[in-house]
Write a structure and sequence with these properties.
With about 300 residues, the chain is α/β, with parallel strands linked by helices. About 40% of the residues lie in helices and about 10% in strands.
Amino acid sequence: MSRTTILMPLPAAAFAPAQVAIVWQVLREAGHQVVFATPEGRVPAGDPALLSGEGLEPWSCWRPLRKFKLLGLLLRCNARVRAAYQALSADPGFLQPLRLGELEVADFDALVLTGGEGAEASFAEENPLLLALVADFFDTAGDPGRNKVVGAIGRGVIIAARSTSRQRGGSALLGRKTAVLPPRFERLGRLLRAYRARFGSPDQRLPPQGKAKSAYPNAEAELKALLAKPSDLVAVPKGEPWHFRKTSGMFHDRPGDSRAAWVIRDGNYLSARWTGDAYTFARRFVALLGERRERETTARAS
């Protein structure tokens, strides 16, 4: 049985450590191969402040006090994520990423899009090579002969939405249902960026996001403008079990606990809102890959 090969394109710096490391870990444990790619083929790196917690205190500009962390311990990734990132950092595929310009959709079975902060991570949302590649993946996702699978989490959903499908004559998400980062969660992220810009140590401050200023106030507004109809953006409905956990921005899912997660599937496309959905998103992506393999086995048998 052939091994499933999944492409995960990343910015060269400041990607979301939890999203990438957790999804990679779950996919690897399920026996799948993850291939990484960056714009210039440079080894990527996660946001260092979110990994260590250093440089996030008001006193971080004084180097002797930088190791003394209070708020940084709360803002940094948890122990599970840091352990997953450490393992990811030793993975040969992670240390030898491909160049975006060298990629062919035919070489991969699936695509996973993740998010991040800062200029380089936001530039991924505007990179024409990446947007064209994503559009090609979506255009083959519904083709029974090629049967590609696409997943997007966090700002990865924006990359999917900004890619232009030749088949659909608009966004690759046109006519598809999707999750997206809620405005409340996005406001929390902006507060964190503003805090880091004001108080973070110079080497840990985030540069401005992206080259182009978005015409939309938030990701949700942009998605509503690009989708076929506003209801295709699927938010957590009132009355949903564990509604507060899913909508407060205070809880994350965990291995074996999906109460806080919100993940949406539309055919061969799977989406999630943010880092707090990562474990559930990764497990359901594995299940989707399993369905893909079953379809191929059935097709060969017939």
